[in-house]
Amino acid sequence: MAEMDQRLAQLVECLTTSGEPQLNPEQMKELKKICRSSDDHISHMYHLLMTQLNQEHAEIRLSAFQIASELFTRSNHFRTLLISNFQEFLELTVETDYEQPLPPPKEVAQKLKALAIKTVQDWHEKFGEAYKKLSLGYHFLKRNKKVDFQDVRTRTLAEKKREDEKKQRLENIYKEKARKANEEMEEMMDEIHATLTEIESCFKLLLPDPDEFALPMEETGNGDKDVFALPVPAVPCADDDDDEQPCCSKDLAPVTLPNNHSENAAAANLCSKDLQSDESDGDYETRGQAFLRDHGLGSHKYTLSLEIPTDLKVSENENNTDVINNLKDSLKLAKNKYWPAVQSWIQIFTKAGVSDHSLLGAIDLKAKLECALKKQKDIELECKDKKSEAVSASDDDDDFEEVPEKEGYEPRIPDHLREEYGLEPEVPPSPGKKAPAKSLAPCFPLRRKRNNDPLKPTCVAATLKVMKDQLEKRTPSTSSGGGGEPSSRCETQEGELSKAPVVPIGLDLQYWGQEPQTAGKILKVATQHRFWASSEMDEEVESKELEAMLKTRYVSFPGKFEPVTHNCRHPLDNGSLCERQDRYKCPFHGKIIPRDEIGVAINPEDRAREEKQRMEKEAQEQDWRDPELMREIEQATGEDLGSSRYSGKGKRAKRKGKKKYPNLTDLKQKANTSRSRLEKKVFNTGSVKRVISAMNQMDQRRHEKFANQFNYALN
Amino acid sequence: MLGLLWARLCGLDNPVRLRRAEATRRVLSLDLNKDRDVERLHENGINTLDIDPVEGRYMLSGGADGIIVLYDLANLTKSPSYTCKAICKVGKSHPDMHKFSVETVQWYPHDTGIFTSSSFDKTLKTWDTNSLQLAEVFHFEGTVYSHHMSPLATKHSLIAVGTKGPKVQLCDLNSGSCSHILQGHRGEVLAVRWSPRYDYILATASADSKVKLWDVRKATGCLMTLDRHNGEKSKSSSETINTAHNGRVNGLCFTSDGLHLLTVGTDDRMRLWNSASGVNTLVNYGKVCNDSRKSVKFTVSEGCSPDFVFVPCDGTIALYTIYSGEKISVLRGHYDNVDCCVFQPQLQELYSGGKDCNVLAWVPAVREPVPDEDSAKSGSNRHLNPAFEDAWSSSEEEG
């Protein structure tokens, strides 16, 4: 009996600590065999399982639960026992208690819960009739804990509660946002409406609404026949074709009708209008003849094609500048400020689930704004491209402002002024030379008041002069080089030049072959004072080094990099060899010396030296490191002094004991995140002490006498 | 049993003896029975239960959702399985329903035509059972924790009400107004109980750890304050107040003869007091878990020897003998805290309600049929339900 019980305990421990998602079938078979032999074993088994179920490890619980479910379907005695304590069983497996969540690891816990819920349902179907408490438990889960047995995800009430809390929090945030947005909206509503009305009226001013626009047309078409009946319009209109005016032009004084007709089409246009009106009259026949005669037209067989442009264009003139500017401003406001704002409000409202008048209002606003923006797109303001140069600065937020031409700046410098600019009077027409000079000239920022002494190296004239000199020097040389050759050579040179990298010119090249005067001179200031200066104030000292610095160029040549191929190969504690690849010296093992394949130094003197070092080290450590004592200290202080390294076997065995179940997921190891490692460093007693002492020191210093003066603060 | 019956038949025994023996046996065999169920109507925890004292047939239950349900407990179907049906309920559709949790319900002691209920909505309501109409409402300043009517008084019809305020109020059903106020407690009054022996004796328990006994005819103050140290220790220590528990006292119950009083408190103790002298009898019941912030309704058995007390204890009901303090058994069946239990003395049944919304009926187990010569048949009878059989697979290998 006792043996069997012991064996049972062993089996249970084995099975539950395996960490496997499935039970080992062989061990399970053995267990069942023992269990079926008597009810005592089952009682024992039940207690064993309950202890395992109480372990704070989801994997152990899962395995224990699996064993329990195996036995539950088989043994009546086990069922009775388990159901008598069904509350606790559910707490441990289905997480019915909000205060007692399932232990980590999380995935396994989820799995356990899902499995448990499913199993409880199965049990209820099979045994619910017979065991009242089982069905009570099932109904408890179903009704009170709101477990949805159909739901695959099987969320229990506790989980739902957590989720609800989260949802609630989010909802509150959204509500708050919505409230704020509502306030904001109320504030901005008037403003937006004002802007919208402004835009609307601006549009109206620029271009009457099509409805309104059509009205007078109709009237003129039908009611006021007399307008067209009059012979007046046709004749004078023929010559002012550049500004063709429709009959109702008086209605839209500042706006010309959008029209792209060719000029002579315009005249025809008018005629056609007359024609149309005539047609509408009805007695076309008689009047048509008269018309023909009146206008001297040959026949009626003219075909008129009218191009009616779909896009409306408004040209800007002095009559409507203000209106257009105003319109532009408000449109920009609407586009850049109001539209995004309204958009965000709608988003917030829909997220918060607000569906009252505020959302409707926002949507309404958005529609209006969009309508206005669309209109703007439709009525492409012609003036835009016309005025683009003038307006661009304000219009499209360019980085650079267009500056009106400076008086002093002249791209082509007249001869009589060249002296003023520090340039030689130009050699008259020579075209080969003129080109570079001209192209160069505008590149330099010209300033009149500049000190343009050609001797000063930094001034434009000087550089220009230098370049010119060089150019002059070169031309004779190339010309002297050979008659037909240079052109081809030039070509190859140009090809190479295009390939050549561009290197910024250093100071030395800048002044190549010159004697810069200011360079290398240091203004010596005798006294630091601003106005108590001595008379020989501007004393200059020439410094050879500085001058040399400007004239020399260093080109460093480090040689070619050769990667290190050898390793340190010093034998390590763990039996391997040091893998470091240092060139001369390993930071851990000193100078790199040739070693054989097991890491022993080849040279005998090296070997002797190493041996000696090792002996010394050991001796040094052994006389104060008593492993026993150290372990005691470690136990007392809880800090690792490294006794395990010296004691060897005993400690290692202990460690193994600690890690009892290697198959289970280590819960503590889970905590080994970057955060925990950092915590270990930061909250380490030593570092905390250090920080405390430093802070104390700072604190103390604050109360000292000259704490606020920097030269005392640093000591 | 047969011996007892025989003795009774011959007139050797007092008739009480047989009754007691059988009642005791039945109480000891109380358990959940799959044949007995109580309809589930509450959506929330059940705070209080009461069985009418006249017939023992109708049971009231008050839930934390403000619903009051009236059950019929009598099984007239002649089949063993029976679900106690709800006859009627004061539910959400009722205009006079309690707004908040119903804390106590009680039948009028002499008739099932009236019952009373008190709730956290600061009212005490009197109902006409037959029409289910509201008869009378008493309003209070604080939430009502408990109320009680004297089970035997015929000369007065006072309802003692314990509210959040420290004063115990007495409402007269005759006049429909509060007639007395009993002052003396310093904390909220969690439980009130009339003595089943004397018309005018009232016991009250409060959150200030005190239990007081009152004679409501006496205007000056309480009769006595129960002291758990029986006056010995408090003399030596500087404190002069007598406390019954070291914590809130939230349950009171007189024994059926009214000679003793049981109290439970949040110090996880139960104490038995002599109700005449106020002496602590120092019966040790062990730890009786109790962390309820409201009143706990527990009950005693009647007509057994020895008598038993049923105390809700977390998710279980503990069964103790009253006078020796021995824990007989623990009834496990609820899946959440148990708040109340009530004993049906005629049939020795126990009903309990808890936070898991269940009303559970604990029914005495029927005697197993005596195995007669046809043992094979009885054996098969016993294992009628296949669920009670072991289901080891037949082959030895599979296990």
UniProtKB/TrEMBL annotation, chain A:
Belongs to the UVSSA family. The lineage of its organism: Eukaryota, Metazoa, Chordata, Craniata, Vertebrata. It comes from Leptobrachium leishanense. Residues 384-409, 470-497, 606-625, 636-678 are annotated as: Disordered. This is UV-stimulated scaffold protein A. Pfam families: DUF2043, UVSSA_N. Residues 499-603 form the UV-stimulated scaffold protein A C-terminal domain. One of its GO terms (molecular function) is zinc ion binding. It comes from the Eukaryota. Residues 160-198 form a coiled coil. InterPro entries: UVSSA, UVSSA_C, UVSSA_N_a-solenoid_rpt. It is found in: Chromosome. Residues 648-661 have a biased composition (Basic residues). GO terms for biological process: response to UV; transcription-coupled nucleotide-excision repair. One of its GO terms (cellular component) is chromosome.
Automatic annotation (TrEMBL), chain B:
InterPro entries: Rad28/ERCC8/Ckn1/ATCSA-1, WD40/YVTN_repeat-like_dom_sf, WD40_PAC1, WD40_repeat_CS, WD40_repeat_dom_sf, WD40_rpt. It comes from the Eukaryota. SUPFAM superfamilies: WD40 repeat-like. Keywords: Chromosome, DNA damage, DNA repair, Nucleus, Phosphoprotein, Repeat, Ubl conjugation pathway, WD repeat. One of its GO terms (biological process) is proteasome-mediated ubiquitin-dependent protein catabolic process. Residues 370-399 are annotated as: Disordered. WD repeats lie at residues 39-81, 95-137, 182-217, 242-283, 331-362. Its main location: nucleus. One of its GO terms (cellular component) is chromosome. It holds the Pfam family WD40. Pathway: Protein modification; protein ubiquitination. It is found in: Chromosome; Nucleus matrix. Part of the CSA complex (also named DCX(ERCC8) complex), a DCX E3 ubiquitin-protein ligase complex containing ERCC8, RBX1, DDB1 and CUL4A; the CSA complex interacts with RNA polymerase II; upon UV irradiation it interacts with the COP9 signalosome and preferentially with the hyperphosphorylated form of RNA polymerase II. Interacts with ERCC6/CSB (via CIM motif); promoting recruitment to lesion-stalled RNA polymerase II (Pol II). Interacts with KIAA1530/UVSSA. Interacts with a subunit of RNA polymerase II TFIIH. PANTHER family: DNA EXCISION REPAIR PROTEIN ERCC-8 (PTHR46202:SF1). Substrate-recognition component of the CSA complex, a DCX (DDB1-CUL4-X-box) E3 ubiquitin-protein ligase complex, involved in transcription-coupled nucleotide excision repair (TC-NER), a process during which RNA polymerase II-blocking lesions are rapidly removed from the transcribed strand of active genes. Following recruitment to lesion-stalled RNA polymerase II (Pol II), the CSA complex mediates ubiquitination of Pol II subunit POLR2A/RPB1 at 'Lys-1268', a critical TC-NER checkpoint, governing RNA Pol II stability and initiating DNA damage excision by TFIIH recruitment. This is DNA excision repair protein ERCC-8.
